[in-house]
Fold:
Amino acid sequence: MATSGEATIPVFWDFSVHAIIARGSGTGDVLNVLVALQDLILAEIPGSTSLGLPYNYSKDNVYEAVQDGAWLVQNYIEEYVASCGADAKIAVIGYSLGACVMMEALCGTSSVGLWPVEAIDSTYANNGMARVTSEYTGLDIRLITNLVIAVINYGDETNGLGQPWNVGNCTVGTGVSL
Structure:
């Protein structure tokens, strides 16, 4: 129980999450600047686990890095669900080149010039989806709400207007509403 002057943080979930995190290109360890985000997830959501995606983020050929990384993400999701069952809760998080990897893995190839990747099998990406409407484009999209419960990307160089997964923005009061 909180004493005077202490804040209590309400718990909105009764589950843990497995975060698959893909960093941007360059040198350094597998998480690089995303280690702080990983630490927050592990601290704030009890029982959670994480994986820094070991794709070849230092590869000279970024197209090959994105394609290989996307296939690796799909493989990790499939293996995690196989070992944890249908109650698995997965968050995919990407920064820069890692954001490209995550979106290609989930949605399939989205941009001209990227090497082809099929979207992840509907067993993982369509399970328990809710319909939402993008406030920006007005398009109906699907939000993954069962196995992959969160997709968080920063600095995706391939993101563009009109893509059907664009929902909300960083303006206070906007975003996804179900």
